[in-house]
Write a structure and sequence with these properties.
The complex is a heterodimer of chains A (249) and B (295). Chain A is α+β, with helices and mostly antiparallel strands and 249 residues long. Chain A folds into 2 domains: 12-218, Alpha-Beta Plaits (2-Layer Sandwich), CATH 3.30.70; 224-248, no CATH class. Chain A has 7 helices and 11 strands. In chain A, strands 10-1-11 form a 3-stranded mixed beta sheet. Chain A starts with 11 loop residues before the first strand and ends with a helix. In chain A, a hairpin with a 6-residue loop joins strand 8 and strand 9. Chain B is mainly α. Chain B has one domain: Formate dehydrogenase/DMSO reductase fold (Up-down Bundle), CATH 1.20.1630. Chain B is 66% helix and 2% strand. The longest helix of chain B has 28 residues, at 255-282. Classes of the chains: A alpha+beta (249), B mainly alpha (295). The interface between A and B is large, with 68 and 58 residues. Chain A: Keywords: 4Fe-4S, Iron, Iron-sulfur, Metal-binding. Chain A: Pfam families: Fer4_11, Fer4_4. Chain A: GO terms for molecular function: 4 iron, 4 sulfur cluster binding; metal ion binding.
Chain lengths: 249, 295
């Protein structure tokens, strides 16, 4: 049913730390690995070893350069997957009821046997979180590893989404964002977690932690620094003559 | 957006077909027997042909019947339901007109209303999408409806009405282009809000996620042919509205030549509308392109 639930018991989602992400793409690979072998149709590749390879991914890492008005530019690695929005526009546009949001934990899923592959949900998503699998003709998206997080056959430490389990930098956190006391909610409160494109009115569950301000070298000058200051502001002698001569050329 | 030929064909043909059905439902022209048969055959051919074309781009066309279930929330589902309802009502109405020389007025009115509602639902599939500011405008349904009505009047041979409706449709087309050209800039969405980093400085896409292309880039970041947009707009306007208007206004008393000119007007209109529809897709900027630095 493509009507969104009035509210969900929990709001399971990810918190992604843009300060910590090193852009290694390990989450991309582990996501593809887990999700191609488990829930639903495999994530196919087209022409993977040819001249123009492409394939279905549920998680992709972009990199952005931010140039502040003053100071150095900063490089920010930016993992992006489904944000499991509270007002998910991808769900309500679905004509068959294949797309749905679970009332128990807020996870947005696709029932692949009902999906006709019209692509309208991907059109409705501002974040590019849904990709139509070319081999299978159905829409693929992040499931928040629904087949891991409740899986009693896995050791408890593995009952988190594959991307979170894999991240070597600890830049990805998983938990209930509907519970203000949860670790993820506290992290969001502490670090000023933000929404992507809030103006779209999608109310994303996933939050992004902004990069912390960079240390500036001026703030931590060594006490010996004054001794290293340039001795001669104005050149003298041979250097002064050379300077003048070169200028005249 | 990727201009898929199936969707361009569908929206162009079915828009015209439902437009003609709307006029036939109102009894314009008031025909019966074989003449009515030809009119209804053209209308149903365009409407049904368009609907069939629309299933070509589906990943699983064999499951298309499931799309009738979610009319409570989905404009695509509403379109399917409305189209089938309109075709059934107009089918029954056509039987009366063609074979029994009976015009069931109420049925015709209902069928006409549903035909136009179908065109409206088609337009709302696009107009509802906040992700594509150029579509997310009131002028989108206005454009689809005015094109459908103008084309319908043209096909139904309602010359005076067609002249008025063509003028209106042409004006709506120009207004749509004017408002659409600034829609993305006015939406307030940019790479800064997309990444949430805009308050920190100037954001630039440094490196894409993969060296190769992907579904998102192919489907949403169509840029081919944008450089010809201005020329294509002139062609769309010329073929879609100016030429049909000129052909309708030629003073002619010979019935055969008059019909020939009307046929030419319809063909020109079709070419123009298809061109306009191609631009509708090719020029539409999906905000996901911002993540790739492609806007």
């Amino acid at each position: 049913m493509t009507q969104l639930p009035q509210s969900t018991d929990r709001k399971m989602g990810l918190v992604i730390d843009l300060d910590t992400c090193v852009g290694c793409h390990a989450c991309v690979i582990s996501c593809k690995g887990w999700n191609t072998e488990n829930y639903g149709a495999p994530l196919s590749d087209q022409n993977p070893y040819g001249a123009d390879p492409s394939g279905t991914f549920l998680n992709r890492v972009h990199s952005y350069e931010v140039q502040p008005p003053e100071g150095h530019a900063q490089l920010i690695h930016f993992p992006k997957s489904c944000l499991h929005c509270e007002d998910a526009p991808c769900v309500t546009v679905c004509p068959t009821g294949a797309s749905y949001k679970r009332s128990e934990d807020g996870i947005v899923l696709v029932n692949e046997s009902d999906c006709i592959g019209c692509g309208l949900c991907a059109w409705a998503c501002p974040y590019g979180a849904r990709e139509l699998d070319l081999a299978e003709g159905v829409m693929k998206k992040c499931t928040l590893c629904v087949d891991r997080i409740y899986n009693d056959n896995l050791p408890e430490v593995d009952r988190v989404p594959s991307c979170v389990r894999t991240c070597p930098a600890g830049a990805r956190h998983f938990g209930d964002l509907g519970d203000p006391d949860s670790e993820v909610s506290q992290l969001v409160a502490e670090r000023g977690g933000m929404d992507l494109m809030p103006e779209m009115g999608t109310k994303p569950v996933n939050k992004y932690l902004p990069p912390r301000p960079k240390d500036r070298i001026e703030d931590q000058t060594d006490i010996l620094a004054p001794l290293l200051a340039p001795v001669a502001e104005e050149p003298k002698g041979f250097i002064a003559w050379l300077d003048k001569a070169l200028e005249k050329l | 957006m990727h201009p898929a030929p199936s969707v361009i064909l569908f929206t162009t043909l079915s828009g015209l077909g439902f437009g003609l059905l709307a006029f036939l439902g109102l009894g314009l022209p008031d025909v019966s027997g074989w003449v009515a048969f030809v009119f209804f055959a053209i209308a149903f051919g365009l409407a049904v042909g368009g609907l069939l074309a629309s299933t070509f781009h589906l990943g699983h066309p064999e499951r298309a019947w499931k799309a009738f279930s979610q009319w409570r929330t989905s404009w695509l589902s509403r379109e399917g339901c409305s189209a089938v309802a309109a075709l059934i009502l107009m089918g029954i109405y056509a039987i009366g007109v063609i074979f029994m020389d009976q015009r069931w007025g109420l049925l015709g009115w209902l069928g006409a209303a549903l035909s136009l509602f179908t065109v409206f639902t088609t337009s709302m599939i696009y107009a509802q999408l906040k992700t594509i500011p150029r579509w997310n405008m009131n002028l989108t349904p206005a454009m689809f409806l005015s094109f459908s009505l103008a084309g319908g009047a043209l096909l139904a041979g309602q010359n005076t009405t067609a002249i008025v409706l063509l003028l209106i449709a042409g004006a709506v087309q120009l207004a749509y282009w004017k408002q659409g050209d600034t829609a993305l800039a006015n939406s307030g969405t940019n790479i800064g809000t997309a990444t949430g980093l805009g308050s920190r400085g100037k954001v630039r896409a440094f490196e894409p996620p993969h060296t190769g292309s992907n579904y998102l880039l192919r489907e949403f970041v169509h840029v081919v042919g944008r450089k010809h947009a201005a020329k294509l707009r002139m062609l769309a306007l010329g073929f879609g509205f100016v030429l049909p208007l000129a052909l309708l206004l030629v003073p002619m008393h010979d019935v055969v030549i008059k019909h020939l000119l009307a046929l030419l007007a319809v063909i020109a209109h079709l070419i123009g509308i298809a061109t306009s529809r191609w631009l509708f897709f090719a020029q539409a900027e999906h905000v996901v392109g911002l993540y790739y630095g492609k806007r």
